Amino acid sequence: MSATRLGVSPLALLASQPAVQAAGAHAAAGTLLLPVDPLALLPGFALFAVIAWLPALYLLGRFSGWRRLADRYPASPPERSTRIHCGFVIIGHARYRNIMRLTVDERFMHVSAIWLFRAGHPTFSVPWQDIVASRDTYPWFPRFPVIRLTFANAPDVRFLVPEQVGERVIQAAGGRLRLEEPERVP
Fold it and tell me: In DSSP terms, which residues pair with 134 in a beta bridge?
């Protein structure tokens, strides 16, 4: 015999169940009743993040050209250096936003990533004699001026910094790096 034939609506029958009553009490109190404790899920989420994060960083470093630069220019410890905040940098086709550090000393421009991204992005140091600076444009916004840093051992890897950052790098280089102006065609 169905609930409606007994004169009881299906919703009233469902509402009489203890689990539904408990959920209603939690909803009235503004709390959420979950079948699993969220803290018990935390190790699984952390493991998933590590399993997904590390390969993603490695692939990003490989495909952007960062790893090629790091292979050709091994890291050297900075001496009496100046750190330059760069905001964003484009290496290859990858845009790095607020994760990169440029450190300048008498012999090198050191490029490093913050600790969270360092897994796929080893630090590298480029000697001043291997760097050529020139004006360029941001690929997706042609009116956004940038400075292209071209490295002698990897001239095909695009390395773009905002114009203000490039000018600070040139200034901090103390005459060891000059901005090459493009030839103007009349």
Answer: 148, 180
Q: How many whole angstroms separate alpha carbon 87 and alpha carbon 95?
A: 10
Using DSSP's 3-state secondary structure scheme, residue 139 falls into coil
Write down the domain spans for the chain.
Answer: 10-186
**What is the distance between the alpha carbons of residues 82 and 30, in angstroms, rounded to a whole number?**
52
Task: List, for residues 67-92, the tens digit of each pLDDT value.
Answer: 999 999 999 988 888 899 888 899 98
Question: How far apart, in whole angstroms, are the C-alpha atoms of residue 148 and residue 159?
Answer: 6
Three-class secondary structure of residue 92 per DSSP: coil
HSE-CB at 124 with a 13 A cutoff on CA atoms is: 20
pTM listed for this prediction: 0.71
Q: Strands 179-180 and 131-137: what pairing?
A: parallel
Classify domain 10-186 by CATH architecture: Roll (2.30)
Cα–Cα distance, 168 to 177 (Å, whole number): 11
